[in-house]
Amino acid sequence: MIAWTIVQIGVLVWAIQMLWKYYKASGGNKFGLPEPPGPYGLPVVGYMPFLGSKPHLTFTKLSQKYGDIFQVQLGSQKVVVLNSLDVIKEAHIQDASFAGRPNSAPFQIFLKSSSSSFSFRTGNAQWKLLRKIAIKALGMFASSRNSRLEAVVGEANEELHAELEASNGEYFDPQQNIFSCTASVIGTILFGLDFSNKDTLLKPILSANQKFADFFATGSILDSLPLGSLIMRHKVKDFVKSLEPVVALVDNHIAEHLVHCEEEDDVRDVADAVVLAAKQTPSDLKQQLGLTDDRIRCITRDLFGAGFATVMESFRWAINLLAAFPDVQERARKELAEVCGDRPLQLIDRSNIHYNEAVLLETFRFSSLLTLSLPHSTMEDTTLRGYFIPKGTTIFTNLFAHHYNPQYFPDPESFTPDRFLTADGKLDADKAQLVIPFGVGKRRCVGENLARQELSLLIGRLLQQFEIRQDTNNPINIRDAMPGLTRGPIQTPLIFKKIAL
Ligand code: HEM
User: Fold this and answer.
1) What global pTM score does this model have?
2) Where on this chain does heme bind (predicted)?
3) Which of 53, 205, 211, 330 has the highest CB neighbour count under 10 A?
């Protein structure tokens, strides 16, 4: 009896949804415009059951039928998917109403447990101020004479390279070591992480990182169903608990920064620069937008959360791709030797290592780490390409569809760094601009510059020291990736053979 009632309610909700969709699609709104086309779904769950384990591929296929912009119903979420460079730019660069974040359960839960996060906050005045401080702080750190990126990467590399060397040219899974190296770099750059107690520190970061990727997976029950957080309450509890030690770790490190920094000469790391940038904010704005110490701490927490796994997974992609394509690896190493000789790669060399920079760009494109970027939401009723998009619509930016569009990247399935070089072997700036792993527009990644610099150093210096080989009997699977918010590579054991200098 109860089951029958549930079915009846489901059918009724579905019928109402369909009627509403028909009304909207036929132009029943203040703009008199239709909503974007898209596939029909099932009652209540909408298109969720058809998303599959690789939603970006499902959306890319749907875009072939419905066009660059289409919509799907995922449970209670109406989602508009943007699939081409032009439409992505038009929405995110030209229209401020696309700068929101969704109100879905994962976002609400995360904001509650990390109340001042700006990355997951909708595009309001507070977000604007916190983002501005983060950008100013990263810029201040990069240009300060205390910018220690090269030295910090050097220190972390020493340990990583020693661990790789200790594998004695045997097959070995480097995942844990890469994780430790990248956590150490970003933690030191951001807030002077003291790694003397490394093993105790890394465990909670790793656990929170894995849970985070799963918690924000596209189209999950939690993300899309109204009672999702109730149904998945154990998962929610587990996720919130996993964040606690990481929050405590960052906050403990930042406590001292809040009193340390008075002027630019005092800037030792990004947290110092955040504190200084916050101090320099006009006091009326500070009061009006509630710029408390907790909000200041949260900026650094956000940067750590956003800047750690992304760099780590990109580094792993680069290593795997270089192992899978030994000719690319050899050519990149040769260029490093020509430009740097025996000394380690420095940031200043980046303008001369065209092929290595092309390898990094192709790694970004090929991996498309955040396939659907971070979800946005419309903050106002708006229009795009002649379609009406109501306030509160979730927006997915299908970066993967663009990065695999043969119109921009011929033979997109192939790993070809040469596509970014001019005929005389220089980096082609126009083609480089076409790769957008950091998003575009109002919410574009604030850590882009730091990420590019860090990855360039990590990859280049590894190539200067080691030849990376895959096991031909157990080749690397570069076509698939781990599910979740970030598309991490599937790791197989590799050989790291120390190069005799
Ligand atoms: C390869 C490395 C990285 C990739 C691929 C990446 C990619 C992205 C993407 C796609 C977004 C979402 C943009 C949008 O919503 O439209 C984003 C946002 C963000 N990223 Fe990154 N990122 C990387 C590294 C970093 C680093 C190193 C930091 C900080 C140190 C960082 C900090 C942030 C923050 C704070 C946001 C949120 C911005 C906002 O909501 O206003 N990211 N990133």
Assistant:
1) 0.92
2) 445
3) 205
